[in-house]
Amino acid sequence: MPITEPNPGEYRSTLRAPDDFDAFWARTLAQARAFALDARFTPAWQRTIEVHDVTFAGFGGHPVKAWLALPAGTREPLPCVVEYPGYGGGRGLAHERLLYAAAGYAHLYMDVRGQGSGWSHGDTPDPVGTGPQHPGFMTRGVLDPDTHYYRRVITDAVRAVAAARAFPLVDGSRVAVTGESQGGGLALAVGALVPDLAAVAPDVPFLCDHRRGAELATAGPYREVTAYLAVHRDHEEQVFRTLSYSDGVLFAERATAPALFSVAHMDASCPPSTVYAAYHRYAGPKRIEIYPFNGHEGGEAVQDAARLAFFDATLAR
User: Fold this and answer.
1) For position 121, what pLDDT does the model report?
2) Structurally, how many domains does the chain consist of?
3) What SS3 state is found at 53?
4) Which residues take part in binding substrate (predicted)?
């Protein structure tokens, strides 16, 4: 069922970063960089667009898969869009996502470790074990920021930008990040952790103001947190402290690249006020597309067109 929040655009989050938030991510990324990126690109599919099967080293040196698509016959480096899947999805098949390559961009679509059996398939395992969790990914390792699932995924997402830049036909000075839902939350995180991006485009982003999401969402993965705390009643403070290290509100206030957000006012999975929480904190130039009568599907093809126009402007096509 859709939810209706009165005046969600007026909401301001009170979330504050843990004292060691920046040090935590500096340490995490330094540990990741200790492993060679080892980005490999193998031709996988070619018509008017060519697609490469990509493998690179993510968190802990673990292999992460992706697809890289670009117009066939490209000879000069292109601006690149790095995209992250929504919750439960993986990179899918080589020919599934060709929009950005058809528009003349290079496009890297990252697999998400351990996911890819919800609505598209994936090829990247998560070899790290954790303690008890509610089914899903949100509460995997949730009692400690060091073991939390999204520490690994966000690190993979940062390394995906480095992998894209390692391809000789990508212009590393013109890279944007984007995604819907979970992918939007990851784009916000990367926007903060990779300071020289050209653009950030989070659509109906998940992973923003986790406590409010857990309190308001009537569908989707925030409900995993609610269900976990309904059993582990004494873990509330510990859980929300861990979740703060992956919170898009805190990443937004550290990101400065031009940004295009989108929000859907009947979104039961990512309540609109959680999206506005990140939008209002965003530190760079920004604007937001609003879909008053849509749920979590958001703007779909309409937003695709808006995002392409945004990338044409920010990536100087």
Assistant:
1) 74
2) 1
3) strand
4) 87
Q: Is residue 109 part of a domain?
A: yes
Identify the domain containing residue 212 by its residue range.
18-314
Sign of the dihedral defined by the CA atoms of residues 203, 209, 214, 215, in that order: negative
In the residue annotation, 296 being an active-site residue is answered as yes
Has 304 been annotated as catalytic? no
Which pLDDT belongs to residue 136? 84
- pLDDT for the residue numbered 125: 80
pTM score above 0.85: yes
CA angle 6, 268, 297 (to 5 degrees): 110
Residue 229's domain is classified under what CATH number? 3.40.50.1820
Annotated binding site for substrate: 87
CB 303 within 8 A of CB 260: no
pLDDT single digits (tens) 154-165: 999 999 999 999
Residue pointed to by tokens 């292999």? 63
Binding-site annotation: residue ranges: 87
List the catalytic residue out of 111, 210, 267, 269.
Answer: 267
Classify residue 2: in a domain, yes or no.
Answer: no
Quick one: tokens of 185? 């939350």
| Domain assignment present for 131 | yes
**Contacts of 177 by beta carbon, 8 Å cutoff, 6+ apart:** 81, 82, 83, 84, 157, 161, 186, 187, 190, 191, 194, 197, 199, 200, 201
Catalytic one among 120, 181, 244, 262? 181
Q: If you search the block for the tokens 């830049």, which residue do you land on?
A: 165
Contacts by residues 34-37 (CB-CB < 8 Å, ≥ 24 positions apart): 35/60, 35/61, 36/61, 37/159, 37/162, 37/163, 37/166
Cβ within 8 Å of residue 240, ≥6 positions away: 210, 211
Distance CA 204, CA 275 (A): 7
pLDDT, residue 123, reads: 82
Note whether residue 5 is domain-resident: no
Q: Read off the tokens for 17.
A: 């970063």
